[in-house]
Amino acid sequence: MKVKEIAELAGISVRTLHHYDEIGLLSPENTTEAGYRIYSNNDLEMLQQILFFREVGFSLKKIKEIIHNPSFNQNEALQLHRKLLLEKRARLDRMINTLDKTIQHSKGEINISDQEMFEGFDFSKNPYEQEARERWGDKAVDESNARINKLSDSKREALGKEFDAIYRDLAAIRHMSPDSDEAQAGIKVWYDYLSKVGNYSLDAFKGLGQMYVDDERFTKNIDKYGEGLAIFIRDAMAEYADHNRR
């Protein structure tokens, strides 16, 4: 099957498939003499795996690490997808039930308790923290959390304001070259800020920047400060890490 046929079948864009090929996530087994990508049944199965992983919140980089690992077992992965999707469905069902009750409550048809108002909501697990633990280990994250927890409320608030100021400053120069003096000065401020709350090696710093682009949750939040900011920060962080390793 050609790329357009695959895109229509899977409900994704041709550009997405091209991107998967470019980053080595899913490269078709064959190409025609004219350069057209030809996808096999094995490619289709791999694409399904990728989309399942995306549905449950994995970044493209993490998916690549998993599915190209020699120990990757497709059947085990399918069982994992099923388990995670069932858990997600159960949580959504609880939230829909809460929503229905809230609608009835707003119409005066029933009364609901404070506890019932929040059934189905669970923010106790931070997906970003989990990703960080998987990438850099528990120790670095635990040390970062310990430092933050020891801070007073006023200092935590000050850190929040400093974070916001840094991102606003970076957004203002996002149209410059990531290796420019201005960009590198701004990204050093970001590195110094992260060093206050954690212990980031240059490799971890560079990896964090890549995750800003690989994980659409990060990209969406960062680009609220300015379109294209996540890519700019990623490139500037990579340049900073590579330059300071020399």
From TrEMBL:
Xref: InterPro entries: DNA-bd_dom_put_sf (IPR009061), MerR-type_HTH_dom (IPR000551), MerR_fam (IPR047057), TipA-like_antibiotic-bd (IPR036244), TipAS_dom (IPR012925)
CDD domains: HTH_TipAL-Mta
Pfam families: MerR_1 (PF13411), TipAS (PF07739)
Entry-linked Gene3D superfamilies: 1.10.1660.10, Antibiotic binding domain of TipA-like multidrug resistance regulators
Keyword Methyltransferase: no
Spans traversing the lipid bilayer: none
Keyword annotations: Activator, DNA-binding, Transcription, Transcription regulation
PROSITE patterns tied to this protein: HTH_MERR_2
UniProt entry tagged with the keyword Disulfide bond: no
Coiled-coil boundaries: none
HTH merR-type domain boundaries: 1-69
Protein name in the entry: MerR family transcriptional regulator
